[in-house]
Amino acid sequence: MKIGEWLGRLSYELLQGSLDTCVEDVIYDSRKARENTAFVCIRGSARDSHEFIPDVLLTGCRVLVVEEDVTVPEDVTVIRVENGRMALAELSAARFGYPAKKLTTIGITGTKGKTTTSYMVKAILEAAGKKTGLIGTNGAMIGAEKFPTSNTTPESYVVQEYCAKMVEAGCEYMVMEVSSQALMLHRVGGICFDYGLFTNISPDHIGPKEHESFEEYLYYKSRLLTVCKTGMVNRLTDHYEEVVRDASCRLYTYGLETKADFTGDAIHYASNHEFVGIEFDIHGFHLHGKVDGRVRVGMPGKFNADNALAALSVCSLALERDKIPEEAFLNALENVRVDGRMEIAYVSKKCSVIVDYAHNAVSMESLLKTLRDYKPKRLVCVFGCGGNRAKDRRYSMGEIGGKMADFCIITADNPRFEKNEDIMKDIEEGLARTDGNYIVIPDRREAIFHAIHNATEGDMIAIIGKGHEDYQEIEGVRHHFLDREVVEEAVKEME
Question: Which DSSP category does 374 fall into?
């Protein structure tokens, strides 16, 4: 392939060399440079990869994409662009043959709920018989196969690579969590989403190496509505008018118990020995005819009704040309599971067990408050706190546990390089500010077993802090550990 053939959608200036130079791949990590590659220079928060040009040239690489004038041998092709990150996105798309164009793409952004909503969208599409790929916080999924990712939205090259794999695997749809950082750093550059979904916004990700202000954060979040054909926005989100101000797409709204294009109401918290979740009615849906009805969502909490309504709303548009059985659409979320996010790990007449990633006081309080809505006989919370993190988190989590749970089991999380006993003592100090009941069981596996084996009828057990993490980090070593697996072991032993 000639480098010039990859530049069709990119504004550039040829400083020297030839656009007929042959290339096989695009490289943005200097350590991966080799012959027949194009190296894209990017100015990062820590390093400017223009500095690595001499090392790159030693590998035999003879195509550079730069943001500034450089002095290099005459046999090197140098292409100057305004923004290296955007160039990387467009070159990556071209290198993989513009795979996103061969998929129906759904981008999801929001401060909360991106991961859960993306899994719900995938579940609905698959219930409709559509093979679907997903890219997000918990990694990439192509059908049932999982791949790790380093960011909520990976670098643009990785995004395009996964899109290409999805096409090769026969996927029709691609669902992606789109972070504000991804929009700011052009990780989704080169993609015009068929559908963009905006769930909500609140102050977050403001600080060093993230966003300078809430205004900047909101600005980049709202950029999704400028890079999609059809947008779906929560009508009840804070700052709604600012979110949609610059939208260039066809716009729809959704909302629980409010006036919107797609609505939901009659919310019911459902809990029995077979099902823990939420039910609600939907209105305004059309799939080759009116589809209004009762939806069951196999995840607790009103906010998951909100996530479900978002997913159903965008999917109703994406599937409106397909003849989807009404039952498949309405029942798609009854058994939905998201690793470590309000995940129902076990339900019986005796107790229900929820695994969640809540790892600070705010998320812990929100979780326990939600579970209280189900009026359990006892709410039991199994938790610890990560080491080498702010101590205040330990005190506050201990205090929240003491105030909101009927019984707490303090245990290990990821101690990292700290002594677990020191972390647990700090948690105890916070819990001691309350009159809450608790015990200390340092071994997390033993703590989970104890909670399940000693459960009484009507108990709801929340195992929090690690969620989807499949490891426990001790003295810099990661040992395999997944809360859900331990729950399954404890239940099997009990049975």
Answer: T
